[in-house]
Design a protein that fits this description.
Number of helices: 8
Strand order of the largest sheet: 2-5-1-6-7-8
Largest sheet: 6 strands, parallel
Radius of gyration: 16 Å
CATH topology: Rossmann fold
Number of strands: 8
């Protein structure tokens, strides 16, 4: 199981879903690690992935490109006066791919967040060539954001293998109640997985990913 997790926006729940999957893989006696190609602000997400996955890799191995400012990678690289290092990402990926069968890759921000003036996080995903797992925050606006992102993924010739609708709060409103049915109607061929607030484990059988 190797796939790239993207979100409809920042704070959609990518790290939460990634860590749930890593823990599920380890519980099934599988060796698995997370990979965060780009991280901006601090390495909290990286440390969460590292804690949830198999022991061994360092934070630097799991996160080859890091900028200290909590900004889009393009701007964070300007602030740090450090160029975006695409080859470092590919080298780190190849090193992990040679050692681990199961790798959960987590993007930074949303699908088209810029990493250079001419490249976005979508180019990172395309370079890895993995199926995409799209995490959406289940709230008003999720339908628009999900439609835009799925179509952008498909326009790259990549497969959106599943949509994860993340419920970050216990409260429900009309949008969060109706969104699942609408997404199943709009995307009948893409599995929809609902992850509830506070959930501590997921069933791997719900994730039909290669």
């Amino acid at each position: 199981m190797r796939f790239f997790i993207t979100g409809t926006d920042t704070d959609s729940g990518k790290t939460y879903v990634a860590t749930l999957l890593l823990r599920a893989l380890l519980a099934a006696d599988r060796t698995a690690v997370g990979f965060k190609p780009v991280c901006c602000g601090d390495r909290g997400d990286v440390h969460a992935l590292r804690s949830a996955g198999s022991p061994g890799p360092s934070a630097e191995e799991l996160n080859p490109v890091f900028f200290p400012q909590p900004l889009a990678p393009l701007v964070a690289s300007w602030m740090a006066n450090v160029p975006f290092d695409f080859p470092a990402i590919l080298a780190a990926w190849e090193a992990l791919a040679a050692r681990y069968e199961h790798i959960v890759v987590e993007g930074a921000g949303g699908w088209e967040v810029p990493v250079t003036p001419r490249q976005t996080m979508a180019d990172v995903a395309a370079a890895l060539g993995l199926p995409i797992l799209l995490v959406a925050n289940n709230r008003l606006g999720a339908l628009n954001h999900t439609l835009l992102t799925v179509r952008a993924i498909q326009s790259r010739g990549l497969r959106c293998a599943a949509i994860v609708l993340n419920y970050p709060h216990d409260e429900r409103d009309s949008a969060s109640i109706s969104n699942p049915a609408a997404l199943r109607e709009i995307f009948p061929d893409i599995p929809l997985i609902e992850v509830m607030h506070g959930e501590t484990e997921v069933d791997l059988a719900d994730f039909p990913l290669d």
